[in-house]
Write a structure and sequence with these properties.
One of its GO terms (biological process) is transmembrane transport. By secondary structure, the protein is mainly α. The chain is built from 13 helices and no strands. It is globular and about 70 Å long.
Length: 275
């Protein structure tokens, strides 16, 4: 086990404290300023609100269409996560537990997505979706997000599936189970921690993304929550009170999601570290 000296602990705790402050201070400022007026934000940006009001939340909700943005983001992120989990787990199961020609090539090819960001291929992606008449549609975004998040999901799930004993699959096969039944009733229950990690990470990535909705969505009724928030960025001035409020509303679901599933997330990370 790694042990630290007294001075080593001081250095580590100091670095952790600095990192915590770098993360928490902007976040707390955003929440605090969401209860202030524009005048208070300019005069006392780092102080607590003297007369907190919910008026900013009402105005931001109505003017930016936060409710509609929530609905679009939930549909897109939820559908993308389901597609990512199903496709990546089936792919990882196949290349982990079955021997066939081209198996290694398929795995390496899928890992190329980790090396090359999808944004580098935005022009061919746009042309492809345009030819398929999927621009300015939720389905087009769902397909993009599934494709973008599959490489990491395959990499993670394959490592977990590799740890599933082959004897369990053989025993199920002897009992008459087919490959899909083995995948569903044997493999999936044993990799639930990994599926939790894939689901949470993919959901947060899709929910927080601003780039692809900005490029492919031009109808405000189909705008995601991140695109809806951008209405408060002006060409010459920003409406900071409503911007901070809308950002607070935008990040709230991901924080709640992590708090609900934090045990599963930590369990998956711990199990992966042990492996």
């Amino acid at each position: 086990m790694l042990t630290l000296t007294k001075y080593g602990k001081i250095i580590v705790y100091t670095l952790l404290l600095i990192y915590t402050l770098l993360v928490l201070v902007p976040f707390l400022m955003m929440i605090s300023n969401s209860f202030k007026t524009m005048r208070d934000i300019y005069l006392k940006p780092f102080s607590l609100p003297t007369n907190p009001s919910l008026k900013n939340f009402v105005d931001a909700w109505n003017q930016a269409g936060i409710g509609r943005g929530y609905l679009n983001s939930i549909i897109i992120a939820g559908s993308a996560v389901v597609g990512i989990v199903i496709i990546s787990s089936l792919f990882a199961y196949a290349i982990s537990k079955y021997e066939f020609k081209g198996r290694r090539f398929l795995f390496i090819y899928s890992m190329l997505g980790l090396a090359f960001p999808a944004r580098l291929a935005i022009i061919p992606i746009y042309l492809l979706l345009r030819d398929l008449h999927l621009t300015n549609s939720r389905l087009g975004l769902i397909i993009i997000y599934i494709a973008v998040n599959i490489p990491f999901s395959i990499f993670l799930l394959k490592n977990f599936i590799d740890g599933v004993p082959n004897e369990l699959s053989e025993a199920a096969r002897i009992d008459g189970a087919n490959p899909l039944q083995i995948y569903r009733h044997v493999v999936l229950p044993l990799i639930k921690p990994a599926i939790s990690i894939v689901s949470i990470v993919s959901f947060v990535n899709v929910w927080n993304d601003f780039f692809f909705p900005l490029i492919f969505i031009n109808d405000r009724s189909k705008a995601t929550i991140t695109l809806a928030v951008s209405i408060f960025f002006g060409e010459y001035a920003n409406r900071w009170n409503l911007l901070f409020t809308s950002l607070t509303l935008a990040v709230a679901p991901t924080i709640i999601l992590f708090l609900i599933f934090s045990k599963q997330f930590i369990a998956g990370m711990t199990q992966g570290a042990i492996k």
